[in-house]
């Protein structure tokens, strides 16, 4: 029996996105696999990129609000000596230079200067909106785009390898950063700092918050499980919430109050947190103010 026949169970599925497909394309595939149109994703990846993409099924799509701001980690390859219009390998080349002799010390110093809290200008071919239109559309229509810098935090850039490839120098890195950071922009800015140009040739997201590649599944594997009537390995709403934020267990009386959207007494938890019932089912997300814990999102409504 397929997933469509069983009916989809709400939850989060960590997908290992393949290369050559958009994040929206992954959602389209997952709708067929799960047998429902109520599927969404958190944290867009470019078609060239692979790796962790969080997909929500059913009412778990409400949890995507809490996925968007999580920090992320990436494995990437930067090619020095060549600039492209998209700052990655999918765009046309705009300039080349001999980067074969760029000193390793200069590469390390330039990347070190990019760590910490910085102002980063997003790639011109990005989803940032300018006067209501996506920047990438304006660029593809031949318009010049100038984006304002955004404050991001790059916790670490670890150099894994530096390889000389003819006139180019390829730099393999691991990047840990805040949401909103453009890895393509790191490649572009490294090339600019070293005066040889640079772009991204490979990108793999290895982590979003507490969701890593160790729990990710390929689309083909998920499709095979669906066809065989096997579980897709989705995290339940309660399990997913526990990875996203602190949790609190409600008594039956508190659970009933929450189902009507009523607040609970505060217990001193800072920031938003999830409330689970005694069976581990997600009831609501709360935020405390003074002596009151007010529901921000309610997942189980009163019958």
From TrEMBL:
Residues 31-183 form the Pseudouridine synthase II N-terminal domain. Residues 245-299 form the tRNA pseudouridine synthase II TruB subfamily 2 C-terminal domain. Its EC number is 5.4.99.25. The active site is at residue 46. Pfam families: TruB_C, TruB_C_2, TruB_N. Keywords: Isomerase, tRNA processing. Residues 184-224 form the tRNA pseudouridylate synthase B C-terminal domain. Gene3D superfamilies: Pseudouridine synthase, PUA domain. It is an enzyme of class 5 (isomerase). SUPFAM superfamilies: Pseudouridine synthase, PUA domain-like. It catalyses: uridine(55) in tRNA = pseudouridine(55) in tRNA. One of its GO terms (molecular function) is RNA binding. InterPro entries: PsdUridine_synth_cat_dom_sf (IPR020103), PsdUridine_synth_N (IPR002501), PUA-like_sf (IPR015947), PUA_sf (IPR036974), tRNA_psdUridine_synth_fam2_C (IPR015225), tRNA_psdUridine_synth_TruB (IPR014780), TruB_C (IPR032819). GO terms for biological process: mRNA pseudouridine synthesis; tRNA pseudouridine synthesis. PANTHER family: PSEUDOURIDYLATE SYNTHASE TRUB1, TRNA-PSEUDOURIDINE SYNTHASE. NCBIfam families: TruB. Responsible for synthesis of pseudouridine from uracil-55 in the psi GC loop of transfer RNAs. Belongs to the pseudouridine synthase TruB family. Type 1 subfamily. This is tRNA pseudouridine synthase B. The gene is truB.
